[in-house]
Design goal:
Length: 171
């Protein structure tokens, strides 16, 4: 039986995080896009893990044994209608495609909620692409719901993505 858990990311996780992030990005992009080099993404992870800028910004990793197979990025909600003292945001959540349906996403969400509560947050939100049924299903199964907010984002190539915001209370 493989040991599964969640912990705070360490700088030595940078390469694994880069691989997970690039896989998630490639999976979500409909049109062909040039992705950054893995070494550049790993260097960015190392920098951000070494100096997050806000003690409440954290990266949590889901593990199989000692191997990171998923991650979540959490911190204060930067949205203009949010309170940085009370509102948290799930900025990103990804699990390796070969490791899905093993409870890693749920374990990450529970660890996020525990982390937010420890930091004094009372509410959390996450922006989800409107076509990402799997991510929306994971969050709604955990008690999250749409709050009515939506936005359209465009990348450098002009491809537009519509997102909806989900939220949950951290009681």
């Amino acid at each position: 039986m493989t040991d599964h858990g969640v912990r705070v990311a360490w700088a030595r996780d940078a390469e694994a995080l880069a691989e997970l992030q690039l896989t998630a990005w490639a999976e979500r992009l409909d049109a062909p896009h040039a992705l950054p080099e893995a070494s550049e993404v790993a260097a960015a992870w190392r920098r951000s893990l070494a100096a997050p800028g806000d003690a409440r910004l954290r990266v949590l990793v889901a593990l199989e044994g000692d191997r990171p197979v998923g991650y979540a990025v959490v911190g204060p909600d930067p949205d203009p209608d949010a309170s940085p003292a009370r509102d948290a945001q799930l900025a990103e959540l990804a699990v390796a495609p070969t490791c899905r349906r093993r409870g890693h996403g749920s374990r990450l969400l529970h660890a996020c909620a525990d982390t937010w509560r420890a930091d004094g947050f009372t509410h959390a939100s996450a922006w989800v692409e409107s076509t990402d049924d799997a991510r929306r299903a994971l969050l709604t199964a955990a008690g999250w719901a749409p709050d009515g907010a939506h936005r359209a984002l465009a990348d450098d190539g002009g491809t537009e993505v519509t997102q909806v915001r989900l939220h949950t209370a951290l009681d």
